[in-house]
Automatic annotation (TrEMBL):
Residues 356-382 are annotated as: Disordered. It catalyses: L-threonyl-[protein] + ATP = O-phospho-L-threonyl-[protein] + ADP + H(+); L-seryl-[protein] + ATP = O-phospho-L-seryl-[protein] + ADP + H(+). Its EC number is 2.7.11.1. This is non-specific serine/threonine protein kinase. PROSITE patterns: PROTEIN_KINASE_ATP (PS00107), PROTEIN_KINASE_DOM (PS50011), PROTEIN_KINASE_ST (PS00108). PANTHER family: CALCIUM/CALMODULIN-DEPENDENT PROTEIN KINASE KINASE-RELATED, SERINE_THREONINE-PROTEIN KINASE CHK1.
Length: 452
């Protein structure tokens, strides 16, 4: 039984001045409600999203995750392209997080359901620059998201502004040991950690890689690969030829050059956000011109290229292959392709979408029976392997100096938290000393996009 199953129905309840109107979503650790501020004008009432969470046991691992998410989200909440956290309320049994209500749906739906960005350079540019500005704000504040993906980008009601949501997997650690933390399509190779000898990776540089995958999504409504490891067929092609994406997807030469700078395998050589912003604004078009199809009677007919067999992953084909932890099935079918219609290339998986404040690793594991479901948004916290603190290196320069594996630290240290986190801990009568952070083991590869 999930924690959510033990929660009451809060519909119609008052939490301070917020009346909870309807449940928008239900996850592993809480429920999200649309709420109205009853002190606001009846002619133009103010609506909010309220996450109702079970108050965790003092000193527990779940309390640590919940406090961390709240503190880091509060730290970056002042930016116009980040879902605002207004306040956190408590009673004896529950925690209520008051957030902006984003009623315009998420970026995943805009890409896959409404074709909002199909060959629309200015819409792509606008959304991507807003994401760059929001992420730069987070990084300037020392917060690294680690789960950037279209499902965690929400639109305002008028559809003009986007907001980054869901800080459940975020961290303030510049050099992380939590490998495999995020959603598989959007994780960088060094974050996956399967093919690297390094004992740390930079969450900041991993966020930039995730932006690159989102940019491919915006331009083509496709994913470039499932998992950035050499065993993934599509990523393997990219390792052999950096122009692989340009050859299979209808992106412009300029967009291809930008993507190659984002998908730099050496994270220390990856393009920075300020330079990326400049390149995006200067780019004339993200799309490759589509050549006209010759008339059958034409004396010159485009010659078909060589055909080859590739694996296209699907979710709707029954298979006896392994089943993921969230119930989705990893299945595949072989398609013979040559110069392929673009709709046969690796797709973003289909699904339904939320229109509220975003899911959370500590609040949402979306339940289709009780609220809108976002594919790939079932964020789960890393499983504990060894109780050691996550190292806080002074800077990413130490990553540069790390040429050989170093022994893992076996000591336990106190989790040093900032004043905001301590204030929240005090409000919930938490112990003065919080438990240590943990080293997580990588998760298995799941077909359905699942945050790790």
């Amino acid at each position: 039984m999930r924690i959510t199953d033990t929660l009451p129905d809060f519909t119609g309840h008052l939490v301070e001045q917020y009346e909870l109107l309807e449940c928008l979503g239900s996850g592993a650790y809480g429920k999200v409600y649309k709420a109205v501020d009853i002190t606001s004008s009846t002619k133009s009432p103010n609506h909010f999203a309220v996450k109702c969470l079970l108050k965790p046991e003092v000193g527990s691992r779940q309390e640590e995750f919940q406090l961390r998410e709240i503190a880091l989200h509060q730290k970056v909440s002042g930016h116009p392209n980040i879902v605002a956290m207004h306040e956190v309320l408590y009673d004896d049994f529950f925690v209520y997080v008051i957030l902006d209500l984003c009623e315009g749906g998420d970026l995943f739906a805009a890409i896959t359901e409404t074709d909002s960005f199909k060959r629309d350079d200015e819409s792509i540019r606008s959304v991507f620059v807003q994401l760059l500005d929001a992420l730069q704000h987070c990084h300037d504040k020392g917060v690294y998201h680690r789960d950037l993906k279209p499902e965690n980008v929400l639109f305002s009601k008028d559809g003009r502004r986007v907001h980054i949501a869901d800080f459940g997997l975020s961290t303030d650690t510049r050099a992380s040991q939590e490998f495999g933390c995020g959603s598989s399509y959007y994780m960088s190779p060094e974050c996956i950690g399967k093919e690297s000898y390094r004992t740390h990776y930079s969450p900041r540089l991993n966020d930039i890689w995730s932006l690159g995958v989102i940019l491919v999504n915006l331009i083509t409504a496709r994913n470039p690969w499932c998992f950035a490891v050499s065993s993934d067929e599509h990523f393997s092609h990219y390792l052999q030829d950096e122009d692989f994406i340009r050859q299979l997807l209808p992106i412009s030469d300029g967009a291809n050059r930008i993507l190659k700078r984002i998908f730099e395998l050496n994270p220390l050589h990856r393009i920075t956000i300020p330079h990326l912003r400049k390149e995006i604004l200067a780019l004339k078009t993200f799309h490759r011109a589509v050549p006209p199809v010759p008339h059958p009677s034409s004396s010159k007919v485009l010659e078909a290229g060589p055909r080859k067999v590739v694996t296209i992953y699907t979710e709707d084909i029954p298979s006896s292959d392994e089943e993921s932890s969230d119930g989705s099935t990893v299945s595949s079918t072989l398609l013979s392709i040559g110069p392929t219609p673009i709709d046969q290339l690796l797709p973003i998986p289909p699904g339904s979408f939320s229109n509220w404040c975003g899911s959370s690793a500590s609040t949402s594991d979306t339940d289709s029976e009780s609220g809108p479901e976002t594919p790939a948004s079932k964020a789960v916290e890393p499983e504990v392997d060894v109780a050691v603190p996550e190292l806080h290196l002074d800077s990413e320069e130490e990553l540069r100096e790390e040429e050989m594996p170093t022994p893992k630290i076996k000591q336990t240290a106190v989790f040093q938290c900032d004043p905001a986190l301590r204030a929240i801990a005090k409000a919930t009568k938490a112990a003065a000393t919080l438990p240590p952070k943990y080293l997580a083991r990588p998760f298995a590869i799941f077909r359905k996009e699942t945050a790790r």
